[in-house]
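Deliverable D5.2: sample structural annotation.
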Amino acid sequence: MRIYLLKIIGLFFVLGLSAANATAQGKLVFEKDKHEFGKIQEEAGPAEITFEFTNTGNAAVTISDVKASCGCTTPTWTKEAVAPGKTGFIKAAYDPNNRPGPFEKSITIQSNAENPTVVLSIKGEVIPRERGPKDWFPIESGALRMRSKNIYLNKIYHNQSSNSIDFLVYNQSDEPIHLKLAETKATLPAHVSIESTQTQVNPKDSLILKFNYDAVKKNDWGYVSDRFILLTDDATEPNKQLYISANITENFGTLSSESKIPMIGFDKNYHDFGKVNQNTTSSVDFTMVNNGNAPLIVRKTSASCGCTVSEPKKTTLQPGESTTITVRFSSGGKTGKQNQNVTIITNDPAKTTMTLSISAEINP
C-alpha cells in the first residue's frame, strides 16, 4: 500500500511539473504602441523612435520577425532572447525623402510570446523641402544635369520619318558650358539628327536640344536603342554618353470589321527545361499558327539575353499555316534558377508583340 501511495504522489508531482512547464511563456509589454512624430522636415533625414518592452512572463521571448507596412520604414530590434523581467526594443526609422504630406505606418512583430503578434504604429506629417534643379534634373554629368540619360520616344510608327523630341540640359555651374553640336552629330546614328537655337548653356540656366528620329531609316521593330556622345567643353566631364531609344510599331491605318487580318497563335507560351548542367545547350520548339485570313509576317524575334537564341523556320505564314520557332538556351557558367524571354513581333494588329518564356534550374 505504501509503495502504491508513493507512485500516486510521484505521478501527481510529474503532472504538476508538466503543467508548470506547459504554462511557462513570455509576454511582451510595451511602454507604448503608438508614436506621433508631429511635423518633420523632409530634408532632416530619417525620423527614429524606439519602442521599449519588458518580458513580464516566466519564459524567455525571442522575436522571430519584424515587418513594416512599407519600404519607407526600416525596423531594427533586439535579436537575442529576452529573459523574464528583462527589456528589449523595437526601433523604427521613417525616411521622409520624397514623401511629403501626412503618413501613418505600422510595424508588425512576431515572437514566441503569449501575445505572438504585436502591432505598433507611427504617424506624422512631412513638411516638403523647397524643390530645385536637382529635383527637376536628377541625373548629373559633370557640370550639366538632365532628367535622364535615355532620350525615349514612346510608340512611333515604322513609316514615319519625322518624330521629334525635346531634351533639356541644365548648367549647375557658375561658368557657361558650350555644346559641340557638329562633333556630336558625328556620333549620332544615321536615323537621328540634332539641332538647337544656341550652343551655350548659361550658368544656372537650361537649354533645349531637339532630336528628330527617322523610323524609316532605322528600319527596325519594337524597342531599339542607340548610343551617342554629347560633346561639350565641360572641364569636369566633356564627353557625355547618352542613349536615344524608341518603341517602333507598325502603322495599320484604319481597320474595319471587313478587313482581312492575320491572327497569331501558339501551342504554348512557356517551357521549363528542368534541371540542366552548366555549359550545355537545351532547345525547345514552339508551334506558331496563323488563325487569321491574311498572311502573318514575323517582323522580328529577340531574346532577353545573349544566352537565348530564337530561330523561326518560316517568317511568312498563309492563313491556316503553321511553323515552329526553335528557342535555344545556353547555360554557360550560370547557376540556380534562370528565367528568359523571347519576344516575337508580327503584323497581327491585335497582338503585335508576343512573349515566349523558358526556365531552367542549372546544376553547379
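Annotation notes: The mean pLDDT is 91. The longest helix spans residues 2-22.
The annotation will be released with the project's public dataset once the embargo ends.
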